[in-house]
Amino acid sequence: MKVLIRLIVAFFVFLVDVVYGNRSYPRFYMLETIARVPYFSYLSVLHLYETLGYWRKADLLKLHFAETWNELHHLLIMESLGGDRLWIDRFIAQHVAFAYYWVVVPLYMLFPSYAYYLMELIEGHAYHTYDEYLKTYEAQLKAQPAPQVAINFYRDGDLYMFDEVQTALSHEFRRPKVDNLYDVFANIRDDEDEHVKTMVALQKPEARLTFKSPHTVFEAIAANADKTG
């Protein structure tokens, strides 16, 4: 199954490379439109299970919603940079996303660990894409201002949802710089790395029962500290 998933992702990456070439912002718009979809699929399945009384895990629901919120703001940033300017780019991204949703829903119902593995590969590709872009265009990006939507999301707005995707941290939340466009893309890249780590952790057999969101973990640490203090 993992071999098949790797082949599917490799084919998708090939198509994106062929269609978009060096059109970076439309390419990123495509990636971010699609990157949100599996989290929608996970949430749909989990809400169905909860409705039927089959399973309930509030922390996992909170995590996947926070991930959709994170990817939404990546998408808003790409839109602010003109990535969705052409009708054809919006058409392709939105229709691929619609089909992708219905691929992930049954996969997550039948094989949740493979659904998380699929997302690990997608997010891993996104991480490397942004990392390469930062290395190639560092000087140009540092000379451009950060979009306001990025400043609001990473610095000036309510950071609760941003914190909820930082599952790999153990002592404090990440507070990134947003001084220029380079910082924005570095933050997006680092977000993708957070998603990869989370997807890896959720593939463990016990993860769906034992997983706790970052705020839940920190609240427990604080409560224990109060008791011992």
UniProtKB/TrEMBL annotation:
GO terms for molecular function: alternative oxidase activity; metal ion binding. Keywords: Electron transport, Iron, Membrane, Metal-binding, Oxidoreductase, Respiratory chain, Transmembrane, Transmembrane helix, Transport. GO terms for biological process: alternative respiration; carotenoid biosynthetic process. It holds the Pfam family AOX. One of its GO terms (cellular component) is membrane. It is found in: Membrane. Its cofactor is Fe cation. Gene3D superfamilies: Alternative oxidase. The keyword Oxidoreductase applies. Its main location: membrane. InterPro entries: AOX, AOX_sf. The chain crosses the membrane at residues 98-119. This is Alternative oxidase. It comes from Phormidium nigroviride PCC 7112.
